[in-house]
């Protein structure tokens, strides 16, 4: 067998490594290997349309007209928006646009600056 430890949940010896995780096929328990860095410490890097790294509090500019879902309003190209926070969802940016209100944007439609 390999040098993987037994499953901490069920004690199975059939544990296998999948990247930085150890997985038990019997009970489906997953945990980080002791010698690997936790995935949360690495952090996701959010990048704009030009490849610049984005952070909370940055000001970005829209590079495309975006229709606001559920209304007849459109947010025009060139609108400056301040990022309230970056989230790990389908739409990465939580922001508030003057005249529109709270909105979520994708990083592919903005550029830093």
UniProtKB/TrEMBL annotation:
InterPro entries, sorted: YjdM (IPR004624), YjdM_C (IPR013988), YjdM_N (IPR013987)
Name by which UniProt lists this protein: Alkylphosphonate utilization protein
Entry's family note: Belongs to the YjdM family.
Biological source species: Algimonas porphyrae
Domain Protein YjdM C-terminal: 47-112
Alphabetized Gene3D superfamilies for the sequence: 2.20.25.10, SH3 Domains
Pfam family, one: Zn_Ribbon_YjdM
Domain Protein YjdM N-terminal: 4-32
